[in-house]
Write a structure and sequence with these properties.
The protein is mainly alpha-helical. It is 44% helix and 8% strand. The chain is built from three helices and two strands; from the N terminus they run H-H-E-E-H.
Length: 121
């Protein structure tokens, strides 16, 4: 499986802001549609990056070294990948969670030999 490009900082930032906007929209019944949420997230991210040095530091991931996702946009059977939260490396798209996890553990062994691969969620 070919590795994927790491997720860019802008993509992470916009995605993170968008998730919060979605949660607030639902929680407060704001009724903002997807296009508005996307534009707001993009505008807030650009404004933040204009005034602040933003770095990605997933504090929620101190204990967990990786996360795994089934990518709904990919065809069934090749849509599992794992991201190494220590360095941002992504596995390729794998046909099963077990294969994605095996690829990730290979990465940990070669790139982070002093650490253990933790389970992912
Ligand atoms: Zn790594």
């Amino acid at each position: 499986m070919p590795e994927q490009e790491p997720i860019s900082l802008d993509e992470r930032l916009i995605g993170n802001i968008r998730e919060e906007l979605e949660a607030q929209t639902v929680g407060r019944g704001l009724g903002l549609d997807d296009a508005i949420l996307e534009q707001l997230a993009w505008a807030i991210a650009v404004n933040l990056r204009y005034a602040f040095d933003v770095t990605w530091a997933p504090k929620w991931a101190r204990e967990v070294h990786s996360w795994m996702e089934a990518d709904e946009d990919m065809p069934t059977g090749e849509n599992h990948f794992v991201e190494c939260l220590r360095c941002g490396w992504l596995t390729g798209q794998n046909p099963s969670k077990a294969q994605a996890q095996a690829e990730y553990l290979g990465h940990v062994a070669s790139h982070h030999p002093s650490s253990e691969g933790c389970s992912s969620g």
